[in-house]
Fold this sequence. Notes:
The protein is of the alpha/beta class. 46% of the residues lie in helices and 14% in strands. It has 19 helices and 12 strands. The strands form 2 sheets. Strands 5, 6, 7, 8, 9, 10, 11 and 12 form an 8-stranded mixed beta sheet that branches. It has a 4-stranded antiparallel beta sheet with strand order 2-3-1-4. α3 crosses α5, α4 crosses α5 and α6 packs antiparallel against α7. The longest helix is centred in the last third of the chain and has 18 residues, at 347-364.
Amino acid sequence: MTKEINEREIALDILMEILEKGGFSHLVLSQALSKYQYLEKQERSFITRVVEGTLEYKIQIDYVLDSCSKVKTKKMKPLIRTLMRMSVYQILYMDRVPDSAACNEAVKLAVKRRFQGLKGFVNGVLRAVARKKEEFSWPNLSVKYSVPQWMADMWIKEWGEDQAEKIMKALLENRDTTVRCNFHLAYREEIIHSLREQGVEIEVKEELPHLIYLKQYDYLEGLNAFSNGWIQVQDMSSSLVGLTASPKENSYIIDVCGAPGGKSLHLADMMKGTGFVDVRDLSPQKIELIEENIERTGFSNIHTKVWDALERDESVLGKADILIADLPCSGLGIIGRKPDIKYNTTAENVESLAALQREILSVVQEYVKPGGLLVYSTCTVAAQENQENARWFQEHFPFSLVSLKDRLGHVLKAESLEQGYVQILPGQYNCDGFFISLFRREN
């Protein structure tokens, strides 16, 4: 008896939603895995691997398909194109999947989805790929690492070819799930004991006591430490925003673009339940994400507000001890976790987002009291949005950069820390690409 729907068919539907309908990969995949939670862990892992791998290597996969098929990828019917892409990924990168199984299952799915007339095409092209898989060579870094050419060119120009290649390579490497501990709710030892008791393999680093790296767990929502609010999924680089801000107890903090709330929760935790974190974002949907995390953690010193950061809020002028401006950006630093970003971003997007960041900074800087701090950060790797904007901000407003040496020097090694900013590149510290700068208002 065959299953009514198998893992490959689920993966196909997920990829169709992302590649052909523009769904966000992390949301579509998460919703599907939740829907099919009843499947065995091994089956859910297969779905995740096929979906993420196909997205990560799409440019390279299309190059392979175009080398083996008379009908180019762009001209294929959407379902067949998606089916071919995920099957090529299995042939090239999943050693435990026999090539014959990848080909045969693809043919079965084509027939099941009423493309009986194309089963010969699917079979012929995929078997050609399997025959030639050891012979493929890549014409450039863009194809080798499945990065759009404009992006590869930008990084080569900004960082040089060797460093640019390291960035691109790092975006394809698997990393463990990183969680940050809420120490106001539980001690580190208590959190570690709870995770190990549920069979989670963990790694801790003494220089980063607030973080735990998770391996070999089934699903996050099933962990007691998560449901108790003791841990929050947050990458190491993102958690450095809290260390940069280093709030004193009873501070008033505004986070102007706060969804999904990880940084605000960190700040609320660091203040040990005192003070007030005023976290805002543009839409009710984004605020809902923050509120879900607040409800799970139970913090009472953090409140949400739907607010457009471009709109001046007269009620908070000159009142914030700390302002967190983690602003909308191209997201090039988190491609390793959200691979669809690289296919949906353009050089023009980078330029327009850099301009938007300057507009927001022009408004929100007024909320910082004299002597107060402003943290400007992004999860991208583009000088326009990072170093250039930090320089622009300092030139136009009464703020000076503050050294990050005492705040982040135990974690990062970068000459720019003394100057008040740091650009973390993917692969440098086993974390996302990220930019952080710290300013103090002079008057």
